[in-house]
C-alpha cells in the first residue's frame, strides 16, 4: 500500500520568493519520495517550482533526484529530507539541464556531496548558464548567481551503478531525446525508474532535443517491465508501458504530419498552424509548448535523409 507522508515546513523565503508553498513529499515506493510539481508554465508566481523532484534513501546514503526550480525550493527539499531521515545526502543526480530541475542545486553543495549528470550536462549548463541567470529574475523573479549553476562532478557516459547501502541505483545516459543530456535512474530494489522528462503525464511533452531520438528511446524503454515509473511532470504510473502511449502517440503525430507536409513542399509557417492540433484536447499547456515543438521537429525533419 502506498504510504503518503506530507512534510510541511516553516521556511523563511527571500522577499521575491515568499509565495512559495511549504514543500510536501510522498513516499511512492519504500524509501522513494517525490514532491509533485503543478502543471503550470514557469512564471513569477510559481518561481519555476513546477517539476517532480525528490530523493531515494539507502542504508548509508541519500540520493537526491533533481533539486527544483529555485534555490529556496532546493533548501525546502533539504529540510524535508532531514525531517524524514538522518542518513546523509551523498549524491545529487540532475536528470537534465532544464531550470525547473537544477536551480535548487546550491542547497546541497557540500564537500562530501557528489553531483552526477549525463556526460553532456556540464556542456549544456555552460552553454546556457548566462542566459539562465539573465532571464531568471525577469521570468521567474528568482535571482541567481553563477555559483547556483552547479555542474556535475561525476559524469555518466553510458551507465553508472551507485550503491546507497543495500540499495543500488542504475543511472543511464540516453542518446538525444527530450534533450541531449537525459539521465534516468533505476532503483533495483523496487524496480522503479525515475524517467524525469523522458515521460510527461497530462502535461504536453516538451521537445528540446530530437523528435526521432525521443521516439527511439521510448521504444527501447517500452520493452522493460517497470513496476513504478516517476515522470518529470505528472503522477506516478504503475501500468507501464500503457502510461507512455499518449506521449508516444503525440510525438508520432508530429513525425507523420510534418513528413507529409515536407513531401508536399510545404513550409514551417504552415506546419506551425496545422500540425498536431488533433491532439490539443489531450494535453495541458498545449498552447504554451505545441508550436515550439512543431518548430523544433520541422527543423530536424527538414534535413533528414
Concise synopsis of the structure shown:
With 305 residues, the chain is α/β, with parallel strands linked by helices. 30% of the residues lie in helices and 20% in strands. It has a single domain, classed as Ribonuclease Z/Hydroxyacylglutathione hydrolase-like (Metallo-beta-lactamase, Chain A, 4-Layer Sandwich), CATH 3.60.15.10.
What does this structure look like?
- The protein has one domain (15-241): Metallo-beta-lactamase, Chain A (4-Layer Sandwich).
- Helices cover 30% and strands 20% of the residues.
- The chain has helices at 71-84, 99-102, 121-140, 211-221, 245-263, 268-274, 286-301, and strands at 26-29, 32-35, 53-57, 62-65, 89-93, 114-118, 154-156, 159-163, 168-173, 183-187, 192-200, 228-233.
- The strands form two sheets. The protein has a seven-stranded mixed sheet with strand order 1-2-3-4-5-6-7, with no helix packed on it. A five-stranded mixed sheet has the order 8-9-10-11-12, with helices on one face.
- Helix 2 (99-102) links the parallel strand 5 (89-93) and strand 6.
- Helix 6 (268-274) packs antiparallel against helix 7 (286-301).
- The protein is globular.
- The N and C termini lie far apart (50 Å).
Question: Can you lay out the helices and strands and say which pair or pack?
Answer:
Layout lengths: L25 E4 L2 E4 L17 E5 L4 E4 L5 H14 L4 E5 L5 H4 L11 E5 L2 H20 L13 E3 L2 E5 L4 E6 L9 E5 L4 E9 L10 H11 L6 E6 L11 H19 L4 H7 L11 H16 L4
Parallel strand pairs: 4-5, 5-6, 6-7, 11-12
Antiparallel strand pairs: 1-2, 2-3, 3-4, 8-9, 9-10, 10-11
Helix pairs in contact: 4-5, 5-7, 6-7
